Amino acid sequence: MDDRRKGSPGLGAVVRGAFLSMAGTFLLVAPGSALGAAPGAIRSLAVDPPGDVLFVAGGSGLSQSRDRGRTLTPVPLPPARGKRVTAVVLDWGGGGPLYVATDGAGVLRSRDGGRTWEVASKGLESREVVGLALDPRARQKLHAMTRNKGLFRTEDGGESWERVDDGPAGTVYVLASVNISTGMGGIFLYAGADQGLFRGPD
Amino acid sequence: MGGLPTKQAVMAFTSFPADGRPMLAATADAVWKSPDGATTWQRLAKAPPGVTALAIHPEKRDVIYSGTQAGEVYLTDDAGTTWRKLR
């Protein structure tokens, strides 16, 4: 069986079962069949250790809990009113920024634990962001996967974004930076998608 | 490196920030855990149904939250051996 699958244009081949070291190339590490997420599904979770504040992103927006998830309090997101929140990530332990990805309003950033928000989407070619990942080694570095404009990176905490490439093929549900060295000076970026689990150098 | 032993979509993924161990991935009917940087994957014997979000506590690798397709939140304090529903 031909085990190769063409990735998005410009990415080169995505090959199952082997690691490709080309920058920006994602490896399909587990093929998958398509599955959609329900409108009320929880899309993303993040924990901030001081106080163990749990942030929950889902169909009804962003919420937070200070009792380990038993009760949730909505977190207003004025710049993204009415938009779905697809991901929440934070620079944990010490009051670092909180970021959310939205399907329609781009990326938002809060520097005060979610009380106020600012748009952090300069350079993003799409406001439909379906995945967001914060680099655990360089916390000003994030990746954002858009619905139809590919993968973007910021290295200044969301002040500006640059396009990386088309990202993984198919519909991406989750993006995550994993603190394991690639051996090429970076770490791995993983993506969960309808076609399975992908990884590539960040 | 070993891939996930499943052909399903991957709805959720997380890893421990300090060293990437463990990693967890959720498919439609299971949660998978890799203790060794995606070399091997084990299906958790018990997991919440329909997991669509996962997060490991940044300072406690055995504390893991999961969110589901039904909007529920679950917590494990023992790295996924047992889960309790929070809401």
Low-confidence stretches of chain A: 1-23
Main sheet of chain B: which strands, in order across? Answer: 1-2-3-4
- How would you classify the helix and strand content of chain B by structural class? mainly beta
**Helix content bin of chain A:** under 10%
Which strands sit side by side, in order, in the main sheet of chain A?
3-18-17-16
Separate helix tally of chain B: 0
Query: Could you tell me the radius of gyration of chain A in angstroms?
Result: 17 Å
Query: Quick one: biggest sheet of chain B?
Result: 4 strands, antiparallel
What's the mean pLDDT score of chain A? 84
- Largest interface pair: A-B, 55 and 48 residues
Q: Rg of chain B, please?
A: 12 Å
Written as H for each helix and E for each strand, in order along the chain, the element string of chain A is: EEEEEEEEEEEEEEEEEE
